[in-house]
Amino acid sequence: MTAGPDTSVPEAIQARVRCAARALGRAGLAHAYGHCSQRLNEGEFLVCAPMPMGMIRHEPGIVVPVEGPLPEGVLGEVRIHQQIYRRRPEVGGIVRSMPPAAMTLSAAGITPRVRHGMGCYFSPGVPLWDDVQLVRSDAQAAGVAGLLGAGPAVVMRGNGLVTAAATLEKAVVLTWYFEDAARIERDLRSAGLADPAGEIGPEAARQRATEAGRIFERMWDYLCAGDPECL
Q1: DSSP 8-state symbol, 125
Q2: I need a labelling partner for 119 at 20 to 30 A (CA). Which of 71, 128, 211, 226 fits?
Q3: Does the keyword Glycoprotein apply (predicted)?
Q4: Interaxial angle between packed helices 168-190 and 11-26, expressed in degrees from 0 to 180 and rounded to the nearest 10
Q5: Mean pLDDT of 157-163
Q6: What is the DSSP pairing of strand 35-41 with strand 153-156?
Q7: CA 200/CA 76 separation, integer angstroms
Q8: pTM for the whole thing?
Q9: Cis status of the peptide bond prior to 124, with omega within 30 of 0
């Protein structure tokens, strides 16, 4: 299958995917590796251009089928997006990123506990895909998507993070929230303060994990500040 720009994709969607990619790059949540996507319809999604996300300017994304082989030029781990969209019709956006604190913990086989407000969106915890290999086959991607289940995130050991949400904007914000939770977990462990008694229980976490008050919208605005396409 040959890749290429699809003029049937509204420019507003192309711009939103570019904004998301650049936001992830600016925030230090991705470097040379990573990708993000937005669902277009039941059978297709738009993934960002196959290049470092922070370097994307006007390059259009590529339309990828939910079922079937990846188009030519699309990065191999975009199979993870396919498998998640296939299993979860409510998901509208996915981010595959490399947040540094999350990477550090994952190298030790650790995912952050629920210890602060932003961590509550991941209660009761996030699973770890305990395999350091790149996800370059459909079977591996299906394994990652299966471990994610109905949750918002899955960590890949020494290999980054995947978030999935109803919108791409929310998936981007959840990536930032998760990295903040990982930073706190790392810092508390470094200081010898990671007492289980300080963890937030499921009921308190459920109440705290609100979407009211433009919680996600405000963080999206913060991450996109100064981007001319994020108006």
Answers
A1: -
A2: 226
A3: no
A4: 10
A5: 97
A6: unpaired
A7: 37
A8: 0.95
A9: yes
